[in-house]
Design brief:
By secondary structure, this protein is α+β, with helices and mostly antiparallel strands. It is built from 26 helices and 26 strands.
Amino acid sequence: MKSFVIPLSDPQADLNTVGGKGMSLAKLTRSGLPVPDGFHVTTEAYRYFVEHNDLQTGINMSLEAVDITQPQTLEIASRKITELFLPASIPDEIATAITQGYASLPGSNPSVAVRSSATAEDLPDASFAGQQETYLNIHHPEAVLDAVRKCWASLWTARAIGYRARQKIAPEDVALAVVVQELVFAEAAGILFTANPINGQRDQMMVSASWGLGEAVVGGLVTPDSLILEKPSGKVINREIAQKLIQTVRIENGTQEIQVPENLQNVPVLSDEQAGELCQLGQRIEELYHMPMDIEWSLAKGKFAIVQARPITALPESPLDWPVPQGGVTFARGSLAEHTPSPVSPMFATLGLRLANRETEILWRDYINIDPTDMFVSDGFYITINNYVYGGFRMGLKNSWALTKMSLSQIGPMLRGAPERWQEASEKFERVVNEWEGKDIAALSPSELLDGICTVFGAAVKYYTVIQTTLPAASMGEIFFTRFYNALIKRKNDPDATTFLFGFKTMPVRAEQSLFDIASWVKQNSLFMQYMQETSTEKLVADFKSDDIPESVPADQWAAYRFRFDQHFERFGRTAYEFDFANPTPAEAPSPQFEAIKLFIDGKAISPYDRYQEALEKREKATKSVLNRIGWPRKGWFEKLLKKAHETGAIREDSIFDMGMGHPVIRSMFAELGKLFVAGGAIKSADDIYWLEEQELQTLITAIESEDPLPNYEDQIPRRKAEWRAALQIVPPVMLPEKSFWQRFIGGGAPEEKDGKTVLTGLGTSSGQVTAPACILHGPEDFPQMKPGDVLVATTTTPAWTPLFALASAVVTDIGGPLSHSSIVAREYGIPAVMAARNATRYIQNGQLVTVDGKAGTVMFTNNGS
């Protein structure tokens, strides 16, 4: 039987049933907090109402002409949908359920608040607050039914339509519940933030308070009193008394804004004791949700009521300490940290880094012949600080001397046999991956799945430790050749040294050529070409992942297209955007691939075959020219150094590309475990497994195999996700302690102000100057934002990001150097690049016009963001 109405505290009151606001109020009520009584009109009622009146077709037709860049189209669509809703009849079974729910409230025709509650609001990562309507002081059953209908219609306000379109939420995926509650006849009301929204301090609370109902405060109609409270004591540490001119009050039917009596306009709304009591309620709610909260409260007859609570989604960066876990140790964002530029997931921070530390210790002990216990902290080389990966060395005099001797002694071994050493390591890694890819993942037990994850990722980090001994060979090969060429060979009009080092078919180049081949096939099929040109990238990805064939595409062409893409991902999709296995692989997040294909189809990107051939011809021409004009001994040195640079340089991109070879099968095994945990009620979504820690993972596996009930981790995951998102806004220091002696060697620094512009200085690694809009990319989830001609701004990039370079007019990264992936690919594409522009991703805003000077190594933009 369908549940159209359920009690406010009903255990069924989850997000899908009663929306974000309703779910929160139910949780608060069940926890014994002072919430006004009432009931939910569920999303089932909304859906039945829409179905009963056949409204969805009209909704979809009204939305067809929406363009989020044209506000008037949102207004027109909203008006059309509202005209569909308001005359529509509420089915008798729903009307009866709502009327009975209203009759169950105390009193005769009690005054109630009728509040909208959407299935995508008041969530830890997205607040849709204020998108839908609230109706206050409603009484009589007919008025309640009318208010419910108006709430349903308010799901389609212009603002809500635009917000969901920007968030790419499909119209069919949203529904609206309604909360009907007793109206608190508030003498005063306001908002409580359980963290200071101005400075981000988590040990403070902020209260806004004014007279009357809370609508004047929430709607910004009045300047309220503002109090800063100390947490947890509740002590008022700052109070600003505003002149409160307007208040919202009840009238016979609804509410009205009136003038505050003069004798109350400059009087404090809350006493210190009341503020302390409110602080205690805020702490209870914050502890319940495990995150800072935005709470609406009211005060009547000396008692507080909580009428709404939602996570704070726009809290400023909290002033964080960056503790040094152990004295005498220097921590740096280098090595593996360069491949985990974002904050890492809890699963990677525990299981992933444990395996990485194990293999790193083996490398130091067996290959470098240094006891790692003399060099690392007790937890190992890699640790997380504020969710970011750091590597730590003991850098005292004794250790520094040992490290220096080791570096000098290893130059020879690292230079000798690097290509062969990499090839052997790659083949070993590939055998492990092939073994586990050949297994029936669904048939494995939970313990076998965990063993597979550890085995494959263990092989991945073992491979990484080997290429740490081969990558220096590539770097030194290029450095030695470049210095020799610039000092003893190069004349005024000769090409740069990089001309001699390009023109090789690395994995990223071959991957791009594969995409070009797909684009060439598409251009031979007119219907398919039209489909690709007229379909958004988001829709292309959705179609590719769907089992259905698009209507405009012939079935045989669709099969051929899928076959080509499957081949592409089989060959080039076994890599990773970031080394944290919580991130999707290119096959799971293929937006860059589709964007590149569309550019090739439209002729807006250079053929990678032509670019490769041009680089090859330039290299051969330049080499021939030099050899024809120099004699012994320079000629012999030139040939020897160039050969070494070629031998080692080719493995640089390929070896990093292979680091993520095992990620697809690792993620498939995590997904299988995630399904089991969802079925057992431990987590809500299979992807939530990455927000668990290794010990929790082991606990769940043990419970499944012992046929015991699974512990529930649902409440912990939103907090961890919120912490991760907060960490994403943090600027992690490149080195700790921040005033370390070694800081002077890493370059970069704070931005400078010059002629009203902000200038970031880094390392210019590819010449040229471009002024264009910036696109900040933190990871695969941001890739769809990238548009042709944008300046790609990221912490760093990996070979899997290469398709994005076809769209970019320039590249800026927080970290990296002349030999990093970003630099190499930028030079191949002939676009400007600035590396190590410290915190560029934090200082630059999305869409901001920036000037990138690859020769000077600067990034410049105006302070007002234009």
